[in-house]
Specification:
575 residues, 3 strands, mainly alpha, 3-stranded antiparallel β-sheet
Length: 575
């Protein structure tokens, strides 16, 4: 029932079908063979874990607006509930590496599905904040398992010439989950107890993956590592074309496993110079993916749009969903380019575009700060909020800009202490009017933004950032990390690099609001721009091209001098 024909017409030219492990040609000289439908089903079922990854990390932004009001959360509890998922993902990713080696790739994905389902039920039914926190931790465990196991599984079942594209599918599902979460947040934002639907709906795809995972085969590479050659052959018969040389593929994997039989564990990883260099590169890729600001943009996109001067909360949420869609669409561009341009070119081009778009974002906020409206009157009761411009006033977390009239025609204004006990914009404005000498109906209290006629440039910058980031720096750290390690070290190294991703994700997420107060908004984005530029320089000198290099050839690739690693993978993979 796994057999079927789905024309593999992803490339413009015919490419001989290559084994996912040996790199040898199956039926050399013949035209590209059609792949069985099974490989596509495996890809889709596995990537649902990526969808849940994206959904659960994206939906919290909209849900927390409602949860904070209902549970009357303090800022500490707000940050704790948001960051608990990331912290749990960091810790579970460390455990997932050993689990996938000991129990197999499939059981870990199956476990992740079950954990996602339980977490969604707990969050959706949470009667108070402690239960909600527990649900967020449970979901984080599922994310850590899925983010580590799914890329490894996909890389090991994929044909060589489609390996990059198939692993990028996981990122498409991640960004798709983020887009869906934005739409769901907007749809339920005005529904009573809407946050329960936002969080609980994640149980539906989790249930689908749980059922589908029960019918997924194990990775043939893992089966061979457990000397289950018959089972491995049966799996390969389902996911390879009918005339594929399975014997040659199995033998090449067995040879590689025999060579690696005496090497296992963290000590051996650091003792091997090629693996150590690959691990350093993998950690740097995951680190720079995060410190170039992607999850700041994803977690706080609505807030960033509001900071730029969009005053309508509903409009900000829907604009956030629109910018998130650029991330989703850009990942399809990466899917199309990954086997055409290669991993190296796509990563470097993506980072260059990220630097440019971060500069635009920083410049927008910088101009808004420099050209912000003047404070036209001082309130003697707010001595701690004395300022001469809106930019200076709103740079302080305890102050806000209170003004009368249209943002383009401010009739009067002052700088006031912000009433953080109120989360409702209308009550803030009313309190602002009653606390000053201002006496008018059209009163606005801007506690984290300033009126600026070019606020739309911020939205352009966000969209450009996501469009540049998503084809390369979004999927390539995961794709490259799933393929640059030898079989004996793949799970261990992927576990380490996934943990680096989550640790840096946590650092960036919990520091953004503090940085905007310390460095100001434009200073924060200038910092992200500088970090992305540093990554561009580092990867220009360290990142090799891995396209076309068989998994068993990666250790040989990293044994070569750095200057010789930049050639096309097809050349490097030849004997």
């Amino acid at each position: 029932m796994w057999r079927g024909c789905l024309c593999c017409a992803m490339d413009d030219q015919h490419i001989p079908l290559l084994s996912s492990s040996s790199g040898t040609t199956m039926g050399e000289g013949s035209a590209a063979e059609s792949l069985p439908t099974a490989i596509y089903l495996l890809t889709l079922l596995s990537a649902i874990g990526g969808f849940l990854f994206g959904y659960d990390t994206g939906v919290v932004s909209g849900a927390m607006i409602l949860i904070r009001e209902e549970f009357e959360l303090s800022t500490v509890w707000h940050e704790l509930i948001v960051s608990a998922t990331i912290g749990a993902a960091f810790l579970s990713a460390l455990v997932a590496g050993q689990a996938t080696d000991r129990f197999g790739r499939r059981p870990v994905i199956l476990c992740a599905s079950l954990v996602f389902l339980v977490g969604a039920i707990v969050m959706g039914a949470a009667p108070e904040k402690v239960t909600l926190l527990v649900g967020r931790i449970i979901v984080g465990i599922g994310i850590g398992f899925a983010s580590m196991a799914v890329p490894v599984y996909l890389s090991e079942v994929s044909p060589l010439h489609l390996r990059g594209r198939i692993t990028v599918v996981n990122n498409i599902f991640i960004t798709g989950g983020q887009v869906v979460s934005s739409i769901v947040a907007g749809a339920f934002s005005e529904v009573k107890m809407g946050w329960r639907y936002m969080l609980g709906l994640a149980g539906l795809p989790a249930l689908l993956q749980l059922i589908g995972s029960a019918f997924m085969p194990e990775s043939p590479r893992w089966l061979l590592s457990r000397e289950r050659e018959t089972d491995a052959r049966e799996v390969l018969e389902k996911i390879r074309p009918k005339n594929a040389d399975l014997k040659e593929e199995i033998e090449s994997v067995k040879v590689a496993l025999a060579e690696d039989a005496d090497q296992a564990g963290l000590r051996e990883v650091f003792a091997s110079k090629p693996v150590r260099q690959a691990l350093l590169l993998g950690c740097l890729l995951q680190l720079f993916q995060q410190i170039s600001g992607i999850n700041t943009v994803m977690y706080y996109s609505a807030s960033i749009i509001s900071m730029a001067g969009v005053t309508d909360n509903s409009l900000a949420i829907w604009l956030s969903a629109a910018t998130s869609s650029m991330n989703f669409l850009g990942t399809f561009l990466g899917l199309w380019l990954v086997e055409r341009l290669g991993r190296r070119s796509l990563t470097l081009g993506s980072l260059l575009g990220t630097v440019v778009s971060l500069f635009l974002l920083a410049l927008t906020f910088h101009l808004a700060y420099l050209h912000s409206p003047d404070i036209l009157m001082q309130d003697p009761s707010s001595s701690e909020c004395v300022a001469d411009t809106c930019g200076v006033c709103t740079s302080r977390s305890s102050c806000g800009f209170c003004f009368i009239g249209d943002p383009d025609d401010i009739q009067n204004s002052t700088c006031l202490a912000s009433n953080h006990s109120s989360y409702n914009e209308m009550s803030e404005a009313g309190w602002c009017a009653n606390s000053t000498l201002l006496d008018a109906d059209d009163v606005t209290f801007a506690y984290d933004w300033c009126p600026y006629e070019y606020a739309w440039l911020c939205i352009v910058g966000l969209a450009l950032y996501l469009l540049c980031f998503s084809p390369g720096m979004g999927p390539m750290p995961w794709t490259i990390n799933s393929e640059i390690y030898p079989g004996w070290a793949r799970a261990t190294c992927t576990s380490i690099t996934t943990s680096v991703n989550w640790a840096s994700n946590l650092l960036v997420s919990i520091s953004f609001l503090t940085l905007t107060e310390t460095l100001l908004k434009h200073g924060t984005f200038y910092m992200y721009m500088g970090l992305a530029g540093l990554g561009l320089v580092i990867f220009f000198f360290l990142l090799p091209e891995t396209r076309g290099v068989p998994l068993e050839g990666m250790e040989r690739l990293f044994s070569k001098p750095i200057s010789t690693r930049f050639r096309r993978g097809r050349t490097l993979s030849s004997p």
